Structures are given as C-alpha cells and as structure tokens.
Amino acid sequence: MKRHIRITPSILNADLSQLDGEIAKIAQVSDLIHLDVMDNKFVPNFTFDFESASTIIENCPIPVDAHLMVADVDEIAPQYAQAGCASVTIHAEATKDISATLKSIRAYGAQAGLALKPNSAISDYSQFSDLVDMFLIMTVEPGFGGQKFMNEMMDKVRATRAIIGERPIWLQVDGGISVQTIEIAAKAGADTFVAGSAVFKASDPAAMVVSLRELAQGVAN
Ligand code: DX5
Ligand code: ZN
Fold this sequence. Notes:
The chain is α/β, with parallel strands linked by helices. 34% of the residues lie in helices and 19% in strands. The chain has eight helices and eight strands. The protein has an eight-stranded parallel β-sheet. It is globular and about 40 Å long. The model has no long low-confidence stretch (mean pLDDT 97).
C-alpha cells in the first residue's frame, strides 16, 4: 500500500496582517497548518508569543501542527497541547527531559513530535521512538523560511524511515520543500511535508498544495 502523504503549509511566510484570509486560501486542500513558534533564543528570530499563537490555534479551521523552536520548551510544550494543537513538536536539542515532555504532550491529547536540527543524528534519539507520533527532520537550519533545501539530510531521512519501519509514526521534513525538492524527500521516506514560501509565494497557493501532494504521492512507496 502506498504511504499516505500529508501537506502542512507553514504560515511563517504568509501575510500575517491578514492571516485568516491566508489560511482560508489553503485550508480545504491541506492536512494541517504548520505553526512555527520562535523565541529569539533557540533560534535568532521571533514569531509568536503564547497568547497570539493561542488566538491563531483557536481560530484555525483545520488542525494545527505546532513546531516549537524555543529554549524553555519543557514548560511551553504542554501549554500548546492544552491549547488544542493537533500535534506539538519539540526540538531534541532544546529539551531537558525529552521523555517527560513527550509524555506530557500526549497526556493533553496532542500528537507528540521530536525534531532534529541538521547537526543532530537520529541514532542518538531512536530510543524515543515509542514515545513519538512524528519525527521531524529539518532540511534547513531552523529560524527562517525561504532557505535552500539540504539534500544531504536525505541519509538521515532514510535512517529515520528504517527506524520507524511500518509503525504509524509520521516522518516530516521542513525547509526548502518545493516542486523541485518534494519528490527527493518523498523517495527518501518522508510522508509529511511542511512548505512555507513555496505555498504562500505561489500565485495560487491551493493549486500549489495540490501539486506538491501529487508529486509526493507519485513517488511514495
Ligand atoms: C524554518 C521553519 C519552517 C519554514 C519553512 O525554521 O521551521 O517551517 O517556515 O519555510 P520554507 O518552506 O520557505 O523553507
Ligand atoms: Zn517549521
């Protein structure tokens, strides 16, 4: 059976002054909205504090996939789960107690995700696979949209797919996903694709989401 593909547009590069309208453009064709939370500590950029993120989560017409790029993630992650996110992803490099934080995300009813920056090896974190619903392999250094896809991360995507096997753990890639790169990542074993600038800088964002899904599904195995 072919792997099920999910497309999760990132609103990082959307027009935040009219976010409801931006989300409405792609809601019907997208699986989740990817919400990049940055604190200017773990990454050199700031996006939303918890209060403004909560407003987005409450008003979002489709499930929210929160990607927390924050230093005090052990405290913040459960709040995002409690706020109603469908999934909450923490960075292995930022989290003091990975097991406890993954468990507390799940305890609030959200899917628990574990993200790795480009320099982090999946072999160092495979022991958490029973506690995660999703691995996120970053295909850029986290912090900014619009960066170049790192082809050299595909070995890590393949290694993560081997660890997951046929378990229902999502394998997400984030950074530089476009019509030029999505098939490469899908062939390596990714099934869940974040796309920011490719979607929101397209003249027809919904059509772009559809195209990305077709390309990924076409090579999924
Ligand atoms: C980067 C963020 C990404 C970003 C992706 O740190 O985690 O989600 O928005 O943007 P693109 O698709 O433009 O690389
Ligand atoms: Zn992200």
